[in-house]
Write a structure and sequence with these properties.
Length: 332
């Protein structure tokens, strides 16, 4: 064999090896991180990782599926063309970031979890053990969704004797699992939802004075989260839960406390009522001048209750303001 032919063969083999390595790298970096979000509000409610069409198929946990059934939602790819380890890391960081900012994700697993087949079998055995002992209320569907296993696989593990050589294995996130599925316990997100429900009930009873937007800000969630909770669209199974700091909430949103802004609006209401009853003869400009507010604000309270931008209760002016009103009283 000539040197030229031998060199050609070597080059061909090297090229084949390089192509194979390139294919392996491309296949290796076939993972992506995705998130589900509500189309109308852009709220993210689930974060995951996968490859192929994983993001668009299969079911997730019950809370996630409930939101998917009730809202128009979409899939957003956060990062793609990455390895599985990279995807796990990004998934975990993203879940932590969202939860730290108050986003109520439906994820149960903390993210970044990659159990081996043996570990998954051990987890299933341990969880079914806790179910048998009455510690957890989990169905096989719950377990399969939690561990991202096929339901038939979970059934086989629980009901067959094929895996007797594998011992039950305590999941790393057992704290979250017990909070989620224990009969008398709730996760942090569920406690927050229960607290919000409790406060909403007090608002309905006129015991506390705050808006849904203020409530959302207080609990670091979005106003649409509060609206969904109020309408029972999400977390319908979570009862009203009294906040640990309920006393502080009562002090902060005392229904009898009247702010300066509320006093102004209440005085406008008071003066307009006297004008409507023929007791005062004043224009909107006169009222604005006496109270040192804009004519536009005064005009707002001439609208009907349904069309009015502001809601206010009458507030009787103090002696100083009443003195300024004297020239406008109608003498009969």
């Amino acid at each position: 064999m000539s040197d030229i032919n031998e060199e050609n063969i070597i080059n061909t083999e090297l090229e084949a090896i390089q192509n194979t390595e390139s294919d392996l790298i491309n296949n290796y970096k076939e993972y992506y991180v995705y998130e589900y979000y509500i189309e109308e509000s852009n709220e993210v409610f689930y974060v995951g990782k996968g490859k192929g069409n994983r993001a668009w198929k299969d079911v997730r946990n019950p809370e996630c599926e409930k939101i998917k059934a009730e809202y128009e939602w979409k899939v957003r790819i956060v990062e793609e063309g990455i390895t599985e380890d990279e995807a796990l890391s990004i998934e975990r960081d993203l879940i932590e970031k969202y939860r730290a900012s108050g986003v109520m994700l439906t994820n149960i697993m903390p993210g970044g979890v990659k159990p081996t087949e043996k570990e998954a079998i051990g987890y299933v055995k341990y969880l079914s053990f806790l179910v048998e002992k009455g510690v957890l209320q989990m169905s096989l569907v719950d377990i399969s969704n939690l561990l991202l296993l096929n339901q038939s696989t979970v059934w086989q593990i629980v009901n067959s004797e094929h895996y007797t050589d594998i011992d039950p294995l305590l999941p790393e996130n057992i704290n979250e699992i017990i909070h989620k599925y224990h009969v008398n316990s709730y996760t942090d997100d569920q406690i927050r939802v229960g607290n919000i429900k409790y406060i909403l009930d007090l608002i309905e009873k006129d015991v506390l004075k705050l808006s849904q937007a203020q409530l959302a800000e207080y609990y670091e969630v979005t106003p649409s989260n509060v609206s969904s909770i109020k309408k029972g669209k999400t977390h319908a199974n979570v009862p009203l839960l009294i906040p640990d700091n309920v006393g502080d909430i009562f002090k902060r949103f005392d229904v009898f406390y009247v702010s300066e802004e509320e006093k102004i609006r209440g005085m406008i209401m008071f003066i307009i009522r006297l004008r409507n009853e023929g007791i005062l003869r004043m224009t909107n400009r006169d009222i604005g001048r006496v109270l040192e507010v804009s004519d536009y604000l005064v005009a707002e309270f001439n609208r009907t209750n349904e069309d009015r931008k502001y809601v206010a209760k009458e507030y009787r002016p103090d002696a100083e303001i009443m003195a300024k009103l004297i020239p406008y009283f109608v003498v009969k």
